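Model it.
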Amino acid sequence: MTAEPTAARTVARAEPSEPATGSGKGGESLLAPVAGSVPKGVLARLVGSGVEEFSTRYWGREPLLRRTGGGFDDLLDLDGVDELLSRRGLRTPFLRLARDGAVVDSRSFTGGGGVGAEIADQVRDDRVAALFAEGSTIVLQALHRTWPGIIDFTTRLTDELGHPAQANAYVTPPSSQGFSAHYDVHDVFVLQLAGRKHWKVHAPVHPAPLRDQPWSEHADAVAARARDAPVIDEVLEPGDVMYLPRGWLHSATALGDVSAHLTVGVHVVTRFAVVEALATLVGSDERLRASLPLGVDLADPDHLGGHLESVREDLIAALRAVPSEDIARHVRDKVWKGNLPEPLPPIAAATFALNLGDGDSVRRRDGLRFRTRDTDDGRIVLELPDRHLSLPESTSTALSAVLDGRTWCVGKIPGLDTPDQLVLVRRLLREGVLMAAGT
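Modeled.
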């Protein structure tokens, strides 16, 4: 079911929020946040003080357009766009161009990197300039990996949402449209950076699409729905934010001057992800791995139906037997491996760990995903996205402390004397779990 159009025409006019500077919550988060559990930080900058209302009313349900009265120059501005295109040595696929609703062949704006850079697909700034002047939209992809302000912003937002996120910027020439009406298979926050852009939003033709259900599979229905009266028909100006759940149709046209917006795509972990985990895990049940009888006619529904009820009963029994711990471990990989924690400066980090001493301050990396568990042989295992660390049980209290998101001084960490604190902290620094507090 789609939301009622009258309910979706929400335009919030709120006092601008202060930029968030808080740290993430760290440990494991698998499903959508619920009322009462969502921290107020970066997300509040986007949706205002009503974070709980956003969680219960809009998240995954309805669009929200909010006029903040502020801006996002701290994340990216047009000067930053020019720097990325001309001085950062971008290669495909970090850049796309689009015109008249279609993607431009990357060979028309890339070339060799010159002496000392033996590559063939580096962005050519002169070709990008020419194509932009002719009406092509610039799409800077994966800015959550390439631009400092957006790296930090996306890391913290991901931590609050509990779902992986990415960030792309769309820079459109005056009075141009980059893409025709379409829907995304992920939720999006649209942050208007510069200029003005006219947005039209229509209700879904395929609500809550999965990752393998793109809009092109419903192209005729999308085109027909786009001819209807839009649910949202508004002009976004710098500082405006719009949230669109996956499946909602949208298109945008720049007005007047150059227009730029940042799209933060949230790759939501769905209930179907739990279904996929269950389907994978029931493969351990021998009954479900058994062969169908010799001579079974798979083309005959009646013949196959004779075995269906038995399989269904065994499947239900197997589903009920799957441990929740196994399901959580399977599903969490979608979140844990979806985003990296905050950047760690390798030279400074290695030097700090080497020279670590009493009184030095450390903190857990923002956005780090982890879980701790005890083992039968008296060890503590720190589970990270790509590996497990085994630590002595005696480190339990100190480990819990340094993972709690606060800043700790070596010598004041509970549960260990100072020499053992140095050993533990140095290990966690070298593993990329902790970092210098001033970093």
